[in-house]
């Protein structure tokens, strides 16, 4: 089982610092989220909101650095950890831009990009980029097929329902296939992951009981797609006190990758200086490495 440090909601400077420390501490990867902006007048409802008005739980001042720019920077500071997006809202962008930016990040990182994709929920972002919010699922399905073609090197073309790309070469091209993971727990998202992707990403932290239910649905989707038993990565995040026994149990269930955010357990306050906050979060990440990572059979 691989462990990935999830760094959403952190200031960009802390993401950079934690990524380098994560590699030194033995984490296998860094897990990055994606938004284009925080809308001041937000009408879209966040699917996993606990608020009556459907608003997201993060502050409007939250930083969302572009994942591919950030990966390219982090790749220059590290040598072995992988970078997974969870999720990259691919259909809020046009196909060619996604292919170019992700492909370049894959090249610069020496094939350490793992592209987790989903349709997102924020209609305001789609309106700002001129992409159709209502066809985002169908476009993502086609985009996954087209991306693999555009990254294959040489002269390629794609002619589909939503995208029409004449013969072209997109260089530099990744020297290895970029793994694509489908995120989401809707029936459509599970179908997409099972039929078109190399793995599945959880939508958020859940209890062990909820996680077992999610994994059962993933297996059902894979069975319907005729892929049960084939190589397929599964990313999970647990809402539980970190435990080697719990993690080993889910490894036995076939979970390949575990998301964790030990920095969230650090006791920080608004009065802390930025240096103090980072120090406490580093220490929490180190404790997790000592208590969990060093005791796991990986």
What attributes does this structure have?
eight-stranded parallel beta barrel; two-stranded antiparallel ribbon; alpha/beta; globular; 298 residues; 14% strand; single chain; TIM Barrel
From the 3D coordinates, which CATH architecture of one domain would you assign? Alpha-Beta Barrel
User: Could you tell me how far the N terminus lies from the C terminus, measured between alpha carbons in angstroms?
Assistant: 6 Å
Order of helices and strands: EHEHEHEHHEEEHEHEHEH
What is the CATH C level class of one domain, in words? Answer: Alpha Beta
Count of DSSP helices?
9
- Report low-confidence residues grouped into runs of 5 or more: none
Secondary structure class reads alpha/beta
User: What Rg, in angstroms, do the CA atoms define?
Assistant: 19 Å
In words, what does this structure look like?
This protein is an alpha/beta fold. It has a domain at about 35-180: TIM Barrel (Alpha-Beta Barrel). About 40% of the residues lie in helices and about 15% in strands. The strands form two sheets. It has an eight-stranded parallel β-barrel with strand order 1-2-3-4-7-8-9-10. α7 (about 210-225) links the parallel β8 (about 200) and β9 (about 235). α1 packs parallel to α9 and α2 (about 65-75) runs parallel beside α3. The longest helix is centred in the last third of the chain and has 18 residues, at about 275-290. The model has no long low-confidence stretch (mean pLDDT about 95).
